[in-house]
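User: Predict the structure for this protein chain, please.
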Amino acid sequence: MGLSELQDEADERAPTHVQGAASFSKFIVVLQIIADAPGTLDIAQLTKRAPFPRGTVYRLVSALVAEGLVTHSGEGGTFRLGPRLLQLAAKTWEDSDLRTIARDFLESLRDATDEAVHLAVPSNNRMVYIDKLVGSSRVQMKTSIGGQVELHSTSVGKAWLSGLPDQRLLEVIKSLDLRRHTANTFTTPEALFDELKRTREQGFAFDDEENEPDIRCLGSPIFNRSGEPVGAVSISMPVYRHDARRHELCARLVRQTAQKISTELSRMV
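Assistant: Here is the predicted structure, written as structure tokens:
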């Protein structure tokens, strides 16, 4: 069912808008269901999981889509958290413990490499950038604080995935849309899983022009005190500045930076 048809059915079922504090709680329930799903949800799955009548779910999700808090896309009419919600979350992350703890380490990493560095956290099968610092030689990249990128084609995404236990990792991989961005993108679960095993063994992920042409990135996972991956840090550079010597240097520095941030984060109560 397309979004227009969904809206039409919602309008037919209820001529008045959803209002009041009780309705606000219902919006939260729908958002939480979408956020907790390992992948995207279609309207049938959403109505099955929501404890509300079908017409109420239609009205709620239509309003969320209209406000940009939920995105409706795909041939099957699937839903995921929208960019506006992630941008609002980024405002909170700007003052979060992770961003605060990581900032000095990110600055040191940027100064040591003179390249762009990023801090990202997982959200609804995406990575969301919560901090970014650039070097003196600015390179045009499709990244910004609050921006979201896919897990399978970025160093921050692959780094975070590599920190997951095998069973959880397999579940997440199965839920991903392994779309191709460049000729180097991993587009099968088997190839991606093998890549993540290598990433785990070496302690860093390498994005070899897998997300953007002419850009290479190295990322390493950040863990909390329970050993769970909660984010990733990365270094990004143009292909012409990447060679074997620089690869080795940046791999070592990004691993060390992620380890330092993880250590500091584990000290938080």
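The longest strand covers residues 229-238.
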